[in-house]
Write a structure and sequence with these properties.
single chain, 6-stranded mixed beta sheet, alpha/beta, globular, two-stranded antiparallel sheet
């Protein structure tokens, strides 16, 4: 089961000619609103899906890609296809147990049908929930991790922590990152290649540069 993206209208995407090589470990799409960053990302997602390439995905609306009525274990099981007993022995879970275990302990999903009230994992802070979702996506052993304005809804300190954590995981797990971001400071923290997208006379133009 894949939690996202749900709303990509692949059949509506039309383009006459496009050539783009993504060779760097991190690639950012940069440009003004409306120039086609999300369209380009969706086209790559389409190709990734059609070719059966394993990928992870986190959007700005990350909470909508989390089953709030299920606990953390259930969300991890459903996304990874791995049973809880096997998850508990998974090297990635063991590696991150020191910060994951407290979140599991303090956060459960309960529904009281008599009062129609819920207590769920969405009560985690934005940064905590995003980190668990990213861990969930990494359990899928993706070749590419897509980040679509993923850090725009959390505070700066949480952004820095998550980006540094992802960079360390990327060294070990060996996946590419393709992102859309609107914060240049975060782009510089990530490093990699920046593909600047602009429109001229209705045509999309791409120019890239490497940053440290």
């Amino acid at each position: 089961m894949h939690f996202g993206p749900f709303d990509l209208k692949y059949d509506r995407l039309r383009i006459e000619s496009l050539s783009l090589e993504v060779n760097n470990s991190v690639t950012h799409f940069w440009g003004a609103n409306g120039v086609g960053k999300s369209t380009l990302l969706n086209l790559i997602l389409k190709q990734t899906t059609e070719k059966g390439i394993s990928f992870g995905y986190l959007s700005q609306n990350y909470r909508s890609n989390w089953l709030w009525w299920q606990d953390i274990w259930s969300n991890l099981e459903l996304a990874s296809g791995i049973k809880r007993k096997e998850l508990e022995d998974n090297p990635l879970i063991i590696k991150h147990w020191s910060w994951l275990e407290p979140l599991i302990s303090q956060s459960t999903a309960k529904v009281n049908f008599s009062t129609q009230t819920t207590e769920s994992t969405v009560s985690l802070s934005g940064g905590q929930l995003q980190k668990v979702i990213l861990l969930r996506e990494l359990l899928r052993r993706p070749k590419i991790l897509f980040l679509d304005e993923s850090f725009s809804a959390i505070d700066k300190d949480s952004c820095f922590e998550l980006i540094n954590w992802l960079k360390e995981e990327q060294k070990v797990e060996d996946f590419q990152i393709i992102s859309i971001m609107h914060n240049w400071e975060l782009v510089e923290l990530f490093g990699g290649e920046v593909v600047n997208i602009s429109l001229r006379d209705g045509l999309m133009s791409l120019n890239s540069k490497l940053i440290n």
